Queue: 2 jobs
Job 1
Amino acid sequence: MLIRKIITGIFMLTLSIGLSGCVSVAAWERGNLAKPQMALDPHPLQSTVRMHNYGSREAAASTHSAEGGGGCGCY
Amino acid sequence: MVNNKKGSHRGDSSHLIVDSCQSYPIKITSVSTLACATFSESSTTTSKALQALTSAALVLPGLLLTPAHASDADRINFQFSRYQEGKRDLFGVPNNLKPITADVLHGSGIFSLTDRTKFNFSYTQDTWSGATPITISPLAANGNRPILGNTATGITTVGASPIINNSQVLLDRDLNPLRQDSQNHQLMNKDPRSVMVLSSASPETRNQANFGLSREWNEAALNVSGGFSRERDYKSNFGNVSGRLDFNQKLTSVKFGSGYTSSNISAILDHDASPYITKTAFSRQIESRGGSEILQGNRHDWTGNLGLTQVLTKNALLEANIGYTHSNGYMENPYKVMTVIFVDPAVLNNNQTTPITGDMRALLEQRPNVRNQVAINTKYIQYISAFDAALHLGYRLSTDDWGINTHTFDANWVQPIGSGWTLTPRIRYYSQDAAGFYNPYLFSQQTYRRNEVDSLGRQIWIDAKNPNIQYVRDSSFNLIDQNGNLVNEALLNVQPKTASFDAGKLPENFSSDHRLAGFGALSGGVTLNKMIMKGVALEAGFEYYTRASSMQLGSGGRNGFADFDYYVANAALKLDLESTNLSMPGRNLSQHQDSPTHHQHKAPPAGIMFGHMLDKPGDFMVGYRFMHSWTNGNMMHGAHKVNDQTIVDQGCSDTTLCRFTPTYMNMRMHMLDIMYAPAKWWNIMLMPTFMDMDMNLRTLAGRPAPVPGVHEHQGIAGHETGAVGDTMISSLVKLIDIPGHRVHMSLGLSAPTGKVDLQLRRLFQIDGGLIHFGMQLGSGTWDFMPNLTYAGEYNRWSWGAQVNGIKRMENQNKSGYRLGDVFQATTWGGYDLTRWLTASVRGAYTVQGAIHRDFNSFNARIGPMDFPANYGGQFWDIGLGLNAIIPGGRFAGNRFSFEWVQPVRNDFNGFQLERKGALSATWSYRF
């Protein structure tokens, strides 16, 4: 299946980038990375609201599902 | 501002760190403050460069956290959000149903228990109401029928009623729906269009709470959390474990998580629709109780995910996650039905060309009992040095064994714009394929119900009283039993034996829920963040979302009837407790231990509002106030119990007898107290409120018999309302401030932000009308709220008194009535049990007028709570309270207070339910 291939491909690519160890950013070079705008989720409150709305209106699966949550949102 | 071009030079790198301590206090505060602390403590022994290096390394744990861990500083957030849907397109059918609205109140916090252990919690309450689609039918079948009402201006359309069953649709021989002219019933063209059939709903509320504990190590973190979500029809409990491991000098982080959710569905089926819905597939799950049919189900969800965050360069990082969810159990929406058009194959195949009639029926939807979902998402974040901005690009792919594949693309541009402002525009595109079992409606080539015949082709008859014995008729139409003997038909109640359709000829699963259809959606929005002072930030977000069948990737366009749009607006207050300089770990605490007793006066009991002032110009206070009041038990008239017959005869009006009376009503109110001192003598205060209420009714003994066409309360379900209440703003002025004695005056205004036109849903084809006065969420009028407070203290003793009132400044609100004015006098005394704990006793007298005027539109008038004279009265209460202020340590400066208010004597206006008491709880924090 095409989708399976895509999933495997993306994951392997990411994994290889991550574990290759070819990346080297010295500690004193990480100033920009530490800025609030570079946070993985700069606005977590906004994300929660949006994810709840998308979740009640769309049928997609989430990669955040292990964070818990419940309820029907049956509207 | 950090200049990244110089980053490789050691001398500059120390500037970089120091600068980041000063310039970026928003999310990274605790980490950068920590970095600064490390910097100063170790400065005597190590070089600056090494300190910088250490500091930079310390910056990273905050950077590489998942969203769940992201807020690593001790903090508290409050947020209010409103979801508003646009009207659905019903293709010209008049429709006055209000679209769906949801109001969401959210509060969350993280507190350090030790240096490395944190406790986090969050609470969410949402209330929604409005019209929701229950099925889809051919437009030609006229599913949304206009309701005609006789009004002063003649007969007009007052609503749209969902007709989901017992309805027929004309079809051509290829099963295309045919449109019939509504006037002369002549056939017109084929009409392939489908339409959503909408049904209104009374407000419903959901509460969710999460609690978690997390622990950080140098290169790892672990978080354990759990919680519950409660709705009237859907209860779930969940727990999960997640963690993080850092590698490669924290350039690489691996995250993992696993969770389990158990849900219990107990849905009261729609009174109106239930008799017309075919529920045979779920008959074993449906029980009858108190006149309601309740569909029971269980559902289990197991999830696991694995993620990787990788720093790519000094300006870019990448995140990838994969998640798997396995669900089993009842995954249907109990309120959604499938339109099945039964076509008699004998008629369809009779070789004629004339239109045939389809028998339209509604069946509860059926979804598979198992679902496996896989999702993968990647996120790339790039720092754009020319703008000091960050670009976030995301893509998510998900697939499941229901056949739903989805693609999501999103982009955010996070732009700091100086003076503490950050502006983040965002855009998102989403596309999904339809579930394999999704269909707008189904055809089934069989009759919905048919007469049974025996092996000889003779129709079978049964006695309704004894359906196990079968009869047939002979050639003279005489009834004979199975032995061929004639039977005296006059003694029996003879009916044809019928069989319902063969469910085996239907698909195994079917749903017309438009969320399982194929579609695309485009949304865009903006988030605005403003740091208003150190540790205090305001955030506002807006998003517009439009869904269109035609935007589906690859194909699409067939489900245009389900297109809709919505917008979401939200506002949040975020407090970073560590930057407010009161609970910072590792600091010299002695000065703070003194401050509560030396600089701050004793607080009044929890039930007192506007009872204290801030003393120093520039001081800021944020607080949360919760009140829960209970009424239940006996119905009272004045100060005395009354029996049902008296309520029936006198509780309503001269012309209307009462039929129902409340059994209980509970009200919960959440208020945010935000207080600021522009001057020593002057404070301003803003108090937004959020409330929710629930009540139930019972039938009065001796009530008049039901009249057709008049609203009756039926079933076991009560009513719920909730959302934003009125918003108070107040100006407090200090009049006297001498040692031991203080007097201040507060002049407040209450703005009518709470709704006063909430309606009950239509039930049994009868409009519910406006919900009872006491269940509306605000006064609906601008109100003046003056108050005068005196407080004194001597050694361990404290005392005080307050007079306050509410004067309605308008004659009527938009629903035509106004609440009575209120006057209250109260006095209290307190004694310090310890340095941080005070006990108080309070007496209060309250008088409130009855409601003036009346509803200006339809209200069902079924009981005392629907009549203006049955509101207000005189009340004498005693309050017992405890106030605590945390004197030192991490949580120094937090104040908590609780008070139970016990009614001692009530003298009600008219007929009202007994008051049982109220609990007030407050938390506040000054900085």
Job 2
Amino acid sequence: MIGKKSIIDRRAGEEVIIHLRRHWFVVFKVAVLYLFLFLLPLLIYAYLYFVIPELLGSEMIVAVLAILLFSYYLCLLVLGFTVWTDNYLDVWTVTNRRVISREQKGLFHRVTSELELWRIQDITHEEKGFWRTVLNYGDVYIQTAGETGRFVFDDVPRPQQVARIIEKINEDSKKNKIDAGAI
Amino acid sequence: MIITLSIFYYLYLVVVFLFILYSLFNFYHLLRFGFFSFANIAFMVAYLVIAGALLALSFNLLAVFDWQTPLFSLKIGWLSDFFNLIKL
């Protein structure tokens, strides 16, 4: 495990300005779905108990149902754990020098990329949909000059504020570069 | 050759094996790339407790059933001969 604000190859004088991960509501939505899926076998059991009670009289069928039930819960548990890992390991860090994106795209696919602040051309943010607007979370797009295309911060809290902070750091870094060039 | 109910039990053991394997992959990622934070550690501990409890409960409950109950009899000549040969 690494420190909360640690970054890869930290440079001299480099400071972490913002450290972002997905908004809690993204995980909450999945948790609600999992709660429903957790309760689903109980509903099926109630249905069988009241509608076809003779089915539950056979020991053989109960044994098979028990196997299916436990297999279902194990799959549900490990899938939930994978969703958590996938979301938790998506981290975007903005320092006074660069933007670092660390994204877990699946169990065997991890992408780490970074972008120097001076290469940023344009920053936009988007809050699309009811929950995103109400809870103030959304995407931040950073357009770059290079081949990388654009950086996307998915479902981060307060995207407008994040975009404004990056713009300010970007302006400051450009100003410092010009000042250093003049000297 | 008589196929018993235990075939389902063996299938469950395969599911348990895959469950443990995928859990280990997740733990590996969280320990290697995750942050040393309360949320991360609390989630991993909670997962271990729930997974352990679920596995213990399942094996305790499944121990009650008679897994040697015959399901059906396989009457494929050469296959029966093959299994009888293995038994010998």
